[in-house]
Amino acid sequence: MSSPTPTETIDLVGRFDAGQELPESMRADVRELGSLLGRVLRESGSEGLFDDVERLRAATIQAYTDHTAEASERAARIVAGFSVARAAEVARAFTCYFHLVNLVEEHHRVRVLRARDADPARQESSDSIVAAFTRLADEIGEQSARERLRQLRFHPVFTAHPTEARRRAVSTSIRRLSDLLDEVDAGPRGGSDERRVRRRMLEEVDTLWRTAPLRAEKPSPTDEVRAVMAVFDDTLYTAVPDTYRRVDDALQGADAGRVAPLVTPFVRIGTWVGGDRDGNPFVTAKVTRKAAGIAAEHVLRGLERTTSRVGRSLTLDAGSTPPSEALTAQWHRLRAADEDAAADIAKRSPAEPHRRIMLLIARRIEATRTRNADLAYRDPDELIADLTTVQHSLIDAGAQRHAYGGLQQLIWQVQTFGFHLAELEVRQHSQVHRRVLEQLEAGDERSDETEEVLDVFRSIAFVQERFGPRAAGRYIVSFTQSAEDLANVHRLARHAMGPDAAAPVLDVIPLFETFADLQAAPGVLAEIVEHPEFAARLAATGRRLEVMLGYSDSSKDVGPVAATLALYEAQAKIGAWAKDEGIELTLFHGRGGALGRGGGPANSAILAQPPHSVESRFKLTEQGEVIFARYGDRHIAMRHIDQVAAATLLASAPSNERRNEEAAARYAAVAATMDRASRQRFFDLVKAEGFAPWFATVTPMEEVGLLALGSRPARRGLSVESLEDLRAIPWVFAWTQARINLAGWFGLGSALAAVSDEAVLREAYEQWPLLRTMIDNVAMSLAKADERIARAYLALGDRDDLAALVLDEMALTREWVIRITGGDELLANRPILGRAVKMRSPYVDALSLLQLRALRALRDAPHDAAPEPELQRLLLLSVSGVAAGLQNTG
Fold first, then answer.
1. Cross-strand pairs, 475
2. In whole angstroms, how far apart are CA 875 and each of 75, 699, 700, 706, 855?
3. In whole angstroms, how large is the CA radius of gyration of the chain?
4. Average model confidence (pLDDT) for the chain?
5. Quick one: pLDDT at residue 675?
6. How far is the C-alpha of 319 from the C-alpha of 338, rounded, in Å?
7. Measured at the alpha carbon of residue 744, what is the angle toward residues 890 and 621, in degrees to the nearest 5?
8. Which residue, of 15, 50, 257, 310, has the fewest CB within 10 Å?
9. Whole-number pLDDT of residue 596
10. Contact indicator for 236, 408 with CB cutoff of 8 Å
11. Which residues contact 141 (CB under 8 A, 6 or more apart)?
12. Is a pLDDT exceeding 60 seen at residue 852?
């Protein structure tokens, strides 16, 4: 078959794009930005680039739609005909296209959220906090529901795991384009303003094209801290209190803003950025201190500006709004401490007592930031006390709307963020602790590692002294295998601080990661709570205890199906134990962005948790591209917080707990069969002789380490002869890049086939939330995989037996998932998601073909030859592009 003519190419591409049934506004945005990119490629690309991109695009669309070997071979021949330099340009073009499509999808989500906000009949969706509160009140009564709302806690923890393939410069350019799309939506059609905006859009697309897509070098931990700060500054600082306000407005109706809020701050932000040293030698005690300082600088500047703004707006005359006695006393106290500023403020606001106080409070916040000891606040509680005095004075004077307006937003911000912004958590491997203690107790000369470990505890003490106990104090022990691993943290703290200094306040958190560790978790916890220092901390906190569960290492151990079932069982046992012991348990879920690391929709996962494992508290890690996808835009951040908090509130509803408990009991035999069959199938693959080097050959696993994603190394000291020390992130990342996504689904087909009773499985899918969530996530993972492309990657390895095992399991899993979910294809029951995947897939195929070309050449090169830099660059460009196209990396 000959190649299509230019006219046929345009017609084929147009028919495919038109067939995706996109909303018209979204289609218009895709068309607009796509045409701008085409113009940029003609103007700024090398000669013929645009035509080559269009030829490959048409060929991959045809191969995707007609499934013939000839169509696939035609697309591969086009890629083979490119020079390496041209292939790199084409990879960059497709990557730019995906950045633009991702932007359009995000922009459309925001457009839909804004439209819903503007329509009173649609404002509160069924998965909002308000809807969850209403359902809960129907079950347990309004007073009990209000108490649950007061106990609600959503605690995302931002991590610096290396899964953001996109450079910050690229992200910034995309954000500017997003602002321009907002202008297009808001502005009138036609005229000079529209021409100006579209000219600027073209300029920005040209910037995106000309910006180097790959980082020249890995970011430092401090760079990672500053990158995450952008999310706080741009969205979370205002989005979190605005979420509280939306919920309170909906719950209080006409009384909103005139009476005390029903909502208490339920979001707490945590961070591992600058604190997670497990396997990352670049995160030192000095970095941890610096990270805390950077975060405090950001939040204190924000609080200073907000306090000044609220203060300037309180131009309430003393005659209409007289100060309370407490406010007058507060004025005298603040004036005595800051006489010159007080005199100046009093002169400008002679009869505005509330305004005067707020402006002096802003001065004290500035002094806290600049470390002026004479004026600085000791801690956030002292600031909240001052703000509450102002609030009560306004209430006493009848100015409730001012008391519960901007001032209430400010109080919420202080209650949520304190002076530290995010609660900095330290993580270290249990083996490191053991090594250091052995050296200390043997009396040997202290190594650099030992000094560094001890200095971490001194840094925690410094941060707590400077910014308050909430600023740092959670200490997570990776690979916890015994109660002694947790007790070791307190022993090290005593060594670090010496006999005369107080140790920092520490909440030591076990992290159970492997399959064996999950099974041992209840026994370890029962033992450690008897330890004197643990018992003392439990008593001091009202018997609060936090336990972290790892998703990715357990999945790498036994496969995704057995790991999911093991996690459920561990949570059920830990939850029941905590209830019996009167312990207020918080389970901390170490979930990644990719499905192979526990990713997927968080709200559905929360509702599938076992009884007593949530109890109105949900904590999880958010990392890499997930941070920016969920929190990079204010409207999307508010929607995400609303959804997750709603699920957290509903998870402990009697009806939901009863449903999960009854389903787990009813389908226990099904679970046991699935566990055995999936684990055996997984072991058939990963325990096969030569699997590790084969895996490194058929995926870009080795090359992932060359991509400057983050400061953290991709390995804990791996050789390709063993997977034991391979981090779960490159394990998932590599399978995703190869379009196999094995870490997200492998073994489920065998598990379902072992059960074999389709009627029972369909019934379980409807009635058992855990199975439904598992199958829906696998359907998404398989939909993003591609058997044709996968075969080409697997052929790199010269192991037909292992390749056949993977492909057979893929086909079996696909077959059973479709049979259980209904329809004739994956995601038939989720048409919007299905269309989104179909729209992207042929364009991702183009990048996969370019990646395969580079991989083949690198694999065919002599073992002792240095890799060709141009081929390595092509490979890394394609890795970045595939990550953008699939919208998850690790």
1. 426, 508
2. 18, 11, 8, 10, 7
3. 29
4. 90
5. 97
6. 26
7. 45
8. 15
9. 46
10. no
11. none
12. yes
Distance between start and end Cα atoms, the chain: 39
Strands 507-512 vs 472-478: parallel, antiparallel or unpaired: parallel
pLDDT range class, residue 11, cuts 50, 70, 90:
low
Distance of alpha carbon 850 from its chain centroid, rounded?
Answer: 29
Token digits for 406?
């901007």
- Letter for the amino acid at 280? N
Query: 3-class SS at 209?
Result: helix
Query: Phi, psi at residue 407, to the nearest 5°?
Result: -65, -40
Q: In whole angstroms, what separates CA 526 from the centre of its chain?
A: 31
**In terms of C-beta density within 10 A (0-12 exposed, 13-18 middle, 19 or more buried), how is residue 226 classed?**
middle
- Please state, in angstroms and rounded to a whole number, the distance separating the CA atoms of residues 838 and 20: 8
Instruction: Count CA within 13 A, CB hemisphere, residue 849.
Output: 29
Are the C-beta atoms of residues 637 and 622 closer than 8 Å to each other? Answer: no
Angle value at C-alpha 614, between 611 and 616, nearest 5 degrees: 125
Give the Cα separation of 614 and 568 in Å (integer). 12
Q: What is the reported pLDDT for 279?
A: 79
Please check the confidence at residue 536 and state whether its pLDDT lies above 60: yes
CA distance 526 to 630: 36
**Catalytic residue positions, numbered:** 161, 556
Give the pLDDT band (50/70/90) at residue 864: confident
Mean pLDDT of 151-180: 82
Compute the C-alpha angle 596/597/599, nearest 5°: 90
Predicted pLDDT at 809: 98
Q: Between these two residues, 723 and 348, which has the higher pLDDT value?
A: 348
**What is the reported pLDDT for 20?**
59
Q: Which pLDDT tens digit goes with each residue over 103-147?
A: 999 999 999 888 887 776 655 678 899 999 999 999 999 999 999
Q: Does the structure show a pLDDT above 90 at 732?
A: no
Lowest average pLDDT, out of 208-212, 334-338, 385-389, 836-840, goes to: 836-840
CA distance 70 to 73: 5
**Distances from the Cα of 683 to the Cα of 81, 288, 686, angstroms:** 41, 40, 5
Return the pLDDT at 133: 96
H, E, C per residue of 400-437 = HHHHCCHHHHHHHHHHHHCCCCCEEEEEEEHHHHHHHH
Find how far residue 799's CA is from the centre of its chain: 36
- Model pLDDT for residues 473-520, shown as the tens digit of each residue: 999 999 999 999 999 999 999 999 998 899 999 999 999 988 889 999
Between CA 834 and CA 274 the distance in angstroms is: 38
pLDDT of residue 626: 82
CA 537 – CA 528 distance, rounded (Å): 12
Segment 26-48, tens digit of pLDDT: 888 999 999 999 999 999 999 99
Beta-carbon contacts of 286 under 8 Å, excluding residues fewer than 6 positions away, are 459
pLDDT at residue 14 in the model: 53
Residue 887 phi, psi dihedral angles, 5° rounding: 65, 25
Q: Structure tokens of 520?
A: 């041992």
Cα–Cα distance for residue pair 28/840, rounded to 1 Å: 17
Q: Structure tokens of 724?
A: 């034991």
337 burial (CB, 10 Å; 0-12 / 13-18 / 19+) is: middle
Supply the pLDDT for residue 13. 52
**pLDDT band with cut points at 50, 70 and 90 for residue 712:** low
CB atoms within 10 A of CB 481: 18
Contact 715, 705 (CB under 8 A): yes
Give 371-385 as a DSSP string.
T-TTT--SSHHHHHH
d(CA 498, CA 819): 64
What's the 3-state SS for 704-736? Answer: HCCCCCCCCCCECCCCCCCCCCECHHHHHHHHH
What is the residue extent of each domain of the chain?
6-121+170-226, 664-886
DSSP code at position 350: T
- Rounded to 10 degrees, what is the CA torsion of 72, 74, 75, 80? 120
